[in-house]
Amino acid sequence: MTQNKDLHFEMQGDIAVVRLTRPAKRNAISDALVLAIRDVFEKLPSTARAAVLDGEGEHFCAGLDLSEINERDAGQGVHHSRMWHHALERVQYGPVPVIASLHGAVVGGGLELASSCHIRVADDTTFYALPEGSRGIFVGGGGSVRIPRLIGVPRMTDMMLTGRVYNAVDGERAGFAQYLVPNGQSFDKAMELARKVASNAPLTNYALTHGLPRIADQPADLGYFTEALMAGIAQSAPEAKQRVRDFLEKRAAKVSKDA
Fold it and tell me: Which of 88, 204, 214, 220 lies most in the core, judged by the most C-beta atoms within 10 Å?
């Protein structure tokens, strides 16, 4: 993997922990760091069953390191955006589900990074913003595609036109995060969820992370057909068959309201 002092990677059992380690810059993403993110998610160990993405210090990520864009021309800007697209596609469409542990600033490119994850856990220090409009630039890391799928086009438009900032509570209600926990607990909750996700059948997880978003983008008739293909493939796996047998033979717990 690409060595980068601003990104830490470790395996905790079958959970890959990826942490931005640039706290003095509020974990702002440089070109080298976005390439390191791409590299680590492209080359996760085969033993990984889920991943947690975190930021060291008080903030998850304050976005793009703006000090690197001063001298780019239009063509370089396009290539830079495409570099981000490729990197964050490796997060969204990598081999395992990714849970983001959010706290502090989730701003600009940091929100784009968070939106490429499959589950987002925020603590009550979290805030969300897209300040690109006030800085004369536009999102370039896939945010115009992913963020409206979380909160809708009108909310994103409002954020970019007016500079609106969402706090943790309003952000969870808007759809930025699926879980909201007290200050300092987002990583522990993300790890708890990652362990639960890692216990699923791998092929089902793959269908959810790779198939479901594509089905959602398809016309209904194509979506139904793709769903049927994914359902047939997933249930044919030996592990899936064993899990169904375990349930039918009462070796697996039933769903309850406390689960």
Answer: 88
Structure tokens at 99: 């849970």
Q: How far apart are CA 100 and CA 69, in angstroms?
A: 26
- The question of whether 192 is a catalytic residue gets the answer no
DSSP-H helix ranges across 43-162: 74-92, 109-115, 143-151, 153-162
Residues 6+ apart with CB under 8 A from 104: 26, 55, 57, 58, 59, 60, 125, 126, 127
List the chain domain ranges.
7-198, 202-248
Work out whether the CA dihedral 12, 14, 38, 110 comes out positive or negative: negative
The CATH code for residues 202-248 is: 1.10.12.10
Give the type of residue at 15: I
CATH of the domain spanning 7-198? 3.90.226.10
Q: Is the pTM of this model over 0.85?
A: yes
Q: Check: CB of residue 48 under 8 Å from CB of residue 15.
A: yes
Of 10, 68, 71, 112, catalytic = 112
Catalytic residue, candidates 10, 68, 132, 192: 132
Alpha-carbon dihedral sign for residues 54, 59, 61, 64: negative
pLDDT tens column, 189-239: 999 999 999 999 999 999 999 999 999 999 999 999 999 999 998 888 777
